[in-house]
């Protein structure tokens, strides 16, 4: 099972692939919208990639609540 650091590193790679944000910029405390400039369309693409990569399901209403990278890492960790 992956730990939070592994999840964060993989998530950073996904964000870099989908949104073009350097993976080094993707840290747990960063807000997707405010700090990383990720709009709702890119967030949908990231969510789909996360669901595929981590084999998790993120309902739309729950996805809207995941404001920071750390929120998403925590969700993935709790899901597994």
Automatic annotation (TrEMBL):
**Residues where O-(pantetheine 4'-phosphoryl)serine occurs?**
40
Cite the PROSITE patterns for this sequence. Answer: CARRIER
What Gene3D superfamilies would the database entry show? Answer: ACP-like
Coarsely, its chief localization is cytoplasm
Task: Fetch the Pfam families from UniProt.
Answer: PP-binding
Give the signal peptide, or none. Answer: none
Q: Name one GO cellular component term.
A: membrane
Q: Write the record's keywords in alphabetical order, separated by commas.
A: Cytoplasm, Fatty acid biosynthesis, Fatty acid metabolism, Lipid biosynthesis, Lipid metabolism, Phosphopantetheine, Phosphoprotein
GO annotation, biological process:
lipid A biosynthetic process
Q: Does the keyword Lipid biosynthesis apply?
A: yes
Pathway info: Lipid metabolism; fatty acid biosynthesis
Recount the PTM note: 4'-phosphopantetheine is transferred from CoA to a specific serine of apo-ACP by AcpS. This modification is essential for activity because fatty acids are bound in thioester linkage to the sulfhydryl of the prosthetic group.
What GO molecular function annotation could you give as one example from this UniProt entry?
A: acyl binding
Q: Where in the cell is it found?
A: Cytoplasm
UniProt function note: Carrier of the growing fatty acid chain in fatty acid biosynthesis.
Q: Which family does it belong to?
A: Belongs to the acyl carrier protein (ACP) family.
HAMAP family with a match to the protein in the record: Acyl_carrier
Q: Which PANTHER family match?
A: ACYL CARRIER PROTEIN, CARRIER DOMAIN-CONTAINING PROTEIN
The protein depicted here goes by the name Acyl carrier protein
């Amino acid at each position: 099972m992956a730990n939070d650091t592994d999840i964060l590193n993989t998530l950073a790679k996904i964000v870099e692939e989908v949104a073009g944000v350097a993976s080094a910029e993707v840290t747990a405390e960063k807000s997707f919208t405010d700090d990383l400039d990720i709009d709702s369309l890119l967030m949908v693409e990231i969510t789909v990639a996360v669901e595929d990569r981590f084999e998790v399901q993120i309902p739309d209403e729950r996805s809207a609540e995941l404001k920071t990278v750390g929120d998403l890492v925590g969700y993935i960790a709790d899901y597994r």
